[in-house]
Amino acid sequence: MRARIDISEIESETKIRAKYLRALENEEWDLLPGPTYVKSFLRTYAEALGLDARLLLEEYKLRHERLSDIELQPIAPPGSRATGGGRGGRGGRRGRGGIPRAYVIWFLVLAVLAGIYVLGKNNSPDNGTSKSNAPQGSAKKAAPSGTTTTNKAKKNATPRVARLQVLATAPVYVCLKAAGNRTLVNGATLGSGAHTRTYRSSRFDLTLGNGNAQMKLNGRVLAVPDVQSGIGYRITRKGRRTLSPAARPVCA
Questions:
Q1: If we measure between CA atoms, which residue out of 29, 50, 49 comes closest to residue 39?
Q2: What does the pLDDT average to over 119-132?
Q3: CA atoms within a 13 Å half-sphere pointing along the CA-CB vector of 4
Q4: Are 237 and 202 in contact (CB under 8 A)?
Q5: In 3D, which of 238, 174, 228 has the Cα closest to residue 202?
Q6: Bridge partners, residue 174, by sequence
Q7: pLDDT tens sequence across 194-243
Q8: Are the C-beta atoms of residues 57 and 78 closer than 8 Å to each other?
Q9: Spatial contact of 165 and 215, defined as CB atoms under 8 Å apart
Q10: Which distant-in-sequence residues (6+ apart) come within 8 Å of 100 by Cβ?
Q11: If phi over 0 gives left and psi between -120 and 50 gives alpha, with beta otherwise, what is residue 192?
């Protein structure tokens, strides 16, 4: 909405039906075909808008994906059913003064595990020195490092296309062409406070009659120098560069 992009434009570019795009915006997951489609639609939609698809998918998984039935099962010790089923006969064993079989089995298992642990610790080549040699605080440094990498990736993410809008601060002549020499604004003069619609293309060529304008490129407002004899730009998703007078686009 901030970029003033119509939902039909995104539908045409991503081949995702408009009703599914609205469902994504409103988080109405029940209206979508399934979790696999949701993640595929989210990735495609994010890339079309120049957002970080990986971050959106991670947020969706954390907030909305349900755990499987196996993951939701309670954790119970092995043989718990057998122990529970034997409650009826436990009283008889206690009456005879015996120790329940489950307790004996658990005791033996713990004893074996303890013996294996002691043998392994004594036979290790470093005798436990590997842990002491590990640099302290390495685990603490890992989290900030990962966070910095994520922030840099998010900051440096480059949109797939350039979204451009020209805003007039005073009357200004505008000639704007997209890739393939397609004319978007055919030499119109914008009045003070007027602006063009937001256009999307891999490349733009722009001629301004003076410096009474600003450009909004992928959400960033770029100033135009105060010139009186005109100025031209080549604009892509990565930024803009000034054109020589001979290279500026010419409108009828």
A1: 29
A2: 60
A3: 12
A4: yes
A5: 238
A6: 188, 208
A7: 999 999 999 999 999 999 999 999 999 999 999 988 999 999 999 999 99
A8: no
A9: yes
A10: 83, 86, 90, 93
A11: beta
Instruction: Give the residue among 201, 211, 192, 213 at the shortest CA–CA distance from 164.
Output: 201
Do residues 214 and 167 lie in contact, with contact meaning Cβ atoms separated by under 8 Å?
Answer: yes
How do residues 157-185 score in pLDDT, each as one tens digit?
Answer: 667 899 999 999 999 999 999 988 899 99
Q: Find the DSSP H helices in 15-170.
A: 18-26, 35-49, 53-64, 69-72, 80-85, 87-96, 101-123, 129-133, 138-155
Under 8 Å CB-to-CB from 144, ≥6 apart: which residues? none
C-alpha closest to that of 25 among 40, 14, 41: 41
Domain boundaries, the chain: 7-64, 162-247
Farthest-apart Cα atoms in the chain, separation: 109
Report whether pLDDT(90) > 50.
Answer: no
> Is there a contact between 187 and 175 (Cβ–Cβ < 8 Å)?
yes
Task: Using a cut of 0.70, tell me whether the model's pTM lies above it.
Answer: no
Residues in the chain: 252
In the prediction, which pLDDT does 243 show?
92
Q: Which has more confidence, 84 or 174?
A: 174
Where do we find the tokens 């704007």? Answer: 176
According to DSSP, residue 172 is labeled E
Report the Cα 121 to chain-centroid distance in Å: 44
* Token representation of residue 238: 């990565």
Residue with tokens 């619609």: 197
